[in-house]
């Protein structure tokens, strides 16, 4: 039986470890679904601000079905449901930290507050309402988008620090906000005027929101990521080393080729004992050739 070269086997073993860390198709599907669910309230609001459909219609067509689907999936798949609930909690905390920066500027009159106007758009009334507006902001926008981030990051397990992922997530949301303000014919009248001050403050708020998501993720989501840890298998690579008097004539067929390992197995290499570290009385000396 021919033995594969050591360097070739190790390359294949490394590739197998990389493949085992990838998410399954079901994980990817669930993360995409929860991402869409998490962005359903902000999407419905953006469509209404652009003027395509009124907010009551987008709420009935997008937000309510997405919420029902999210609850149904959470009950059907408790692992994803637990992660989604943790993301909801993280999002609520993150948007509260955002408002800790935002509210003082609103009180000072530097930045207008459009959140109570959501009640006007949702119920076709001329009276703003703080309770309805901030329930939408905290639960619909902050909480649901926190759920989208947590499920996506926790399931897909990207090789990116959660702090950087959260920061990028927050900046991406800010980019969508600015795009809505630019594209909507009456967006700046409905939300706020785009000035250097409001642009800078809104960016700072979204950075705070995104960083809060990334920082809180490993603390609230104790399990870190979905899925169980891969099992470990020890492999003796001594047949690949130079033969010694103790290994001459050894049966190399007893060691499985590394390229035939399952991709979901985390391999622990068991190296042979180094002879120079062995006691003198255990070392053997090869006989001298006859003269």
Could you please describe the fold and organization of this structure?
The chain is mainly α. It folds into two domains: 23-220, no CATH class; 231-243 and 250-273, no CATH class. Helices cover 60% and strands 3% of the residues. It has a two-stranded parallel ribbon with strand order 1-2. Helix 2 runs antiparallel to helix 4 and helix 5 packs antiparallel against helix 10. The radius of gyration is 29 Å and the shape is globular. Residues 1-21, 224-245 and 261-265 have low confidence and may be disordered.
Entry summary:
With 291 residues, the protein is mainly alpha-helical. The chain has helices at 6-20, 25-38, 40-50, 55-76, 78-107, 118-123, 130-156, 162-183, 187-190, 196-220; strands spanning 232-236, 266-270.
């Amino acid at each position: 039986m021919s033995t594969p070269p050591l360097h070739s086997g190790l390359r294949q073993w490394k590739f197998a470890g990389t493949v085992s860390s990838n998410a399954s198709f079901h994980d990817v599907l669930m993360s995409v679904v929860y991402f869409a669910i998490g962005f359903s309230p902000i999407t419905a609001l953006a469509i209404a601000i652009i003027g395509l459909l009124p907010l009551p219609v987008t709420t009935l067509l997008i937000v309510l079905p997405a919420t029902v689907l999210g609850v149904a999936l959470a009950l059907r798949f408790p692992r994803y449901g637990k992660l989604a609930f943790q993301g909801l909690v993280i999002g609520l905390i993150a948007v509260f930290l955002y408002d800790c920066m935002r509210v003082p500027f609103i009180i000072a009159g530097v930045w207008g507050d459009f959140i109570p106007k959501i009640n006007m758009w949702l119920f076709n009334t001329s009276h703003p309402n703080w309770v309805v507006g901030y329930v939408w902001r905290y639960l619909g926008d902050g909480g649901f988008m926190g759920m989208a981030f947590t499920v996506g990051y926790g399931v897909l397990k990207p090789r990116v620090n959660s702090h950087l992922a959260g920061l990028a997530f927050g900046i991406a949301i800010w980019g969508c906000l600015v795009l809505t303000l630019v594209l909507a014919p009456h967006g700046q009248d409905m939300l706020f005027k785009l000035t250097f001050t409001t642009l800078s403050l809104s960016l700072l708020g979204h950075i705070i929101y995104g960083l809060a998501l990334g920082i809180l993720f490993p603390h609230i989501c104790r399990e870190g990521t979905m899925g169980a840890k891969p099992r470990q298998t020890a492999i003796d690579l001594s047949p690949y080393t130079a033969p010694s008097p103790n290994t001459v004539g050894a049966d190399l067929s007893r060691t499985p080729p590394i390229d035939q390992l399952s991709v979901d197995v985390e391999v622990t290499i068991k190296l042979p004992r180094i002879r120079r570290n062995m006691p003198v009385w255990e070392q053997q000396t090869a006989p001298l050739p006859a003269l």
